[in-house]
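Q: Two folds, back to back.
A: First:
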Amino acid sequence: MVLVAFGVLAVAGCGSGTTAAKKPPPPNATPSTTAPTTVPAPALRVGVVGPLTVKAPSAVVERGPLGRVAGNALVLVSAATVGPQELAAFAEAHPASRFALIGASTKGFRRPNLVGVRFREDQAALLAGSVAGLTARAASPNAPSVAWVGSREPALVRAFVRGVQSTAPGAVVLREWSRDAPLYCKEAAIAAIQGGALVVAAHDGLCAEGAANAAHEQGEAAVAVSSFELPGVAAGLIVKEALAGVHYGGEDLILGAASGAIGVGRLDPAIPPSVVVQAHIAAQQLAVGGGASG
């Protein structure tokens, strides 16, 4: 881990030669009440690229394309907008700036002023499974059934199944494997619903969108693992560290529930409000008690 201090180093000026003696103040002189002048430290300038919600009252935030904001002291980039190879090239071209890729690894493109920020996907899948189980149980207490749609991701699916079983013991978990493309995931979700699934789940991106479209057309609910990963929280943590004079580079940071970066994001409107409340409770318990293993 590389720690780099931000800020300005103040150097006190010193003269050479003999120091002149100070003259005593004249009799009956009125003492000066003027406070010494202080110069505030310059605000941290933060560039933001892509769909990131960044709350940083103590920083100056500039949004825009990477080419325009790359000269800021800190640049936060959504992995949904820019890939690691492109960002690494910008990091090389702007060595005085610090870059953070939110939501992806920088493996293979390490730079001393570039850090990747990843999420504990096993924890996000565990929460997604918990919410899927709660939703299915609310729809059918005696026969809850959910489905995983998309590519084969064994570790992620295992965490998802554990989440389902934690809130709906004995629930049926179907697997409808498909390519990670909207049409294929939609077809797989329709097949799962026809097979009895009351909730369909997918990892992220276009596959999750396709599965959700199918669920809504069939009157059912959908969950996405990515809905439990909070990029805005991760970005805020990077800004907070930078304001404290700390920067990470040449590595990946992996953030979990304990940091607040795994929690409840935007959920399907078809999920009952009572389940949403329980989802937040489950996220708090995960943050306190630790996470699932892969």
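A: Second:
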Amino acid sequence: MNKNIKKIAFIIAWIFTIPAFVLSQVSFWQTLAPITYAASISDIEDETSDVQKDLKKAEAAYNKSLQNLNQINGAVSSTQAVINSTQAKIQATVQTISRKEGEINNLNDQIKLQEEMLRSFLRDIYYIKNQPILGVVLGEENFTDMFSDADHLMTLEDKIINISHNLSDSKSQVEQDKIQLTELKQQHEQVLDVKVDQKQDLLADKAEVAADVAEKEATIDELKQKLAELQSDLNKLTDNSYNAGDIREAVEYASDKNGVPKGVLYGFLKMETNLGANTGQCTYEQVEKVAVARYKKYGSKYKASIALLYKRQNLFYDLVDDLGYSKKKKVSCSPSGYIGQGGAMGVSQFMSDIWNGYSARVTAKTGHGTPDPWNLTDGVMAMAIKLRGAGATSDSASAIKKASINYLGAFNKNYYEGIVYWSKNYKRLFSD
């Protein structure tokens, strides 16, 4: 009896376990299935509409911040003009004060001279006025000459005293002018201090608003990138990718040349670009703008990343120039999920510096003089060469795992499992 109860309980538990197991498997395989299992056209169109609304709001906020920044720049310019004008006034006042000080020194010298002359005349007058009468009578000079000289000296005395008074008055006036000029200079200096403080505050506001503008600009670029990704998803749903026959031909050719299983190549092509349907939606100028804005947010430790970005950009421009493409040739956008830079090219999604490292080997395999990352044959060949170097000469899970880490630069579970799935089920890619 107990045995029967245990059997019944086991059967019931097993029955209830089946749906959970089945659902977990369905969920897993749906994440690896073609894009038609992941989203519908209407879902993507709805999301596109939402992103477009967000983009419109972001652009409005950006324009408002930009207008604010322009106003601050205008205020900084006008404040600087006042600072320059005030500094010029202070300089002119200082020069005038210096001239007044020179005038005061000159007047002091003249006053001293007049005082010295006055003292001399006073001594002479004193001498004449104090001569004994008997001495005058007995002497050769007569009374008239003596008193005439005294009267003359007294007249000069009066003149010198008047001159001294005038000089003193002039000195007082110049000293008063100097005091007023000094007060005016202090007023100018107070205005200058206020304007300099205002300018510093404006520059602080400018830096803050400029950072806000850069952040909003980066947000706009991210939203545009999201729109591009959604458009790419729509392209995938409508089969806007490389011709299936061309893909097969390129994969078989690269597989034969390098010994990498076709399934493995299909798996990597599917996970990297969905068989070439999404080889990039951004120009390198857009990549630069987004990446630099993010790097600068996190300080000097990202200087090396910025230097690498510009190195790759220069190599990219050289490459498209050699191939006759526009500088606006599309590459992968800077990732939205983490700090990094876009710029990956073609179906292999190689960065320009990595592509240069494989270019000669691609030429050796294909005979193409200037390999083109956007050429299906060249791109798949470059991918196969890299995968062979990473040990992907079999479709075993361990070989694929090692190669996926080498190719991506880190282990990603979904990426790895997607490659494993499609390496064994690649025929489903062309079943429609």
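Q: And?
A: The radius of gyration is 47 Å.
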